[in-house]
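Reading a protein record of the kind used here takes little practice once its layout is understood. The reader may check this reading against the record printed directly beneath this paragraph.
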Amino acid sequence: MKKTEIILTFVFATILIGCNTDTSKRTIENAESDYTEKKTDTLTKHLKPFKEELPTIGLLMYNGVLQSEVVATSDVFAKPTEDGTQLFNVVTIAETENPITTEEGMRFLPDYTFENCPKLTALFVPSAYDMYAQVHNKEIVDFIKTKNKETTYTVSNCAGAQLIGASGIADGYKIVTWIGGGLQLQKDYPNLKVQNDSLVTFVEDGKFSSSNGNLASYITALNLLEKMTSLEHRKFVESYLYLDRLQHWKN
C-alpha cells in the first residue's frame, strides 16, 4: 500500500471513530437526561398543588409530636375523589421552618410557619407524651388562638386538648383527651367540659371536636371529612385505607 493510501486510511478511520464516539457520547447524555427527567417526575408527581379555591386543612406540628396524629389527618384529607379530584389543601405548620422530629424519631419538614400560614378551614392540634413545653410556649398557644378566629373547625387529639385548654378557645365546650388524662385536664382548665375518657373516644361540640388520640385520630378526621363532603366520600376513603380490614380482623 502506498504511503498516500495509508495516510488516507488513517484519516478516515480517525473520523469514523470520532463520529462513533460523539454518537456514543450523545446517547449517554440522552440516557442521563431521560433518567434525570424520570427521577424528577417520580419526586414531584405525587405533590398536590395548593389551590386557593379549596378548603385548607392545617396540621400543627412541634418537636416530640406523635406522628400518627399528623399522618392520620393527612391520610384522610389528602385522598382524592373516586375520579381523582383533589378536594382539600393539606398543609403542615410549625413555629419555624426547621425540620420537626417526632416522638418516634422521624423528621417532618413543615410547609408553613406561624408567620406565613395561609387561611385555614380546619386546624388539627396533635399531642406529645410531654406537653409541658408546648403548653408553656406562648407562640404555639397564640397561634391556636389566632387561627381559631378564622377556622370553621378546630380539632384536638389526645393531649392536644391541653393546648386547647391553655388557649381558652373552647371554654364551656365538651372535650376529651387521652385515656387517663381527663381528671388532670379538668383540674388545669376548669372551664372545659371534660368528658370521661374511659368511656368516650370522640366528642363533638359546636366547631370543636376531640379524641383520645393515636389511631383514634382517624375518627376525628373521618367525622370532619363526612361533614365537609358526604357519607359516600367518607366510605370511599375508609375503603381506600382498608379500615374495614382492621374492623374485621381475623388471624
Notes: Residues 2-25 have pLDDT under 50 and may be disordered. The first helix runs from residue 3 to 44. The radius of gyration is 27 Å. The chain is about 45% helix and 15% strand.
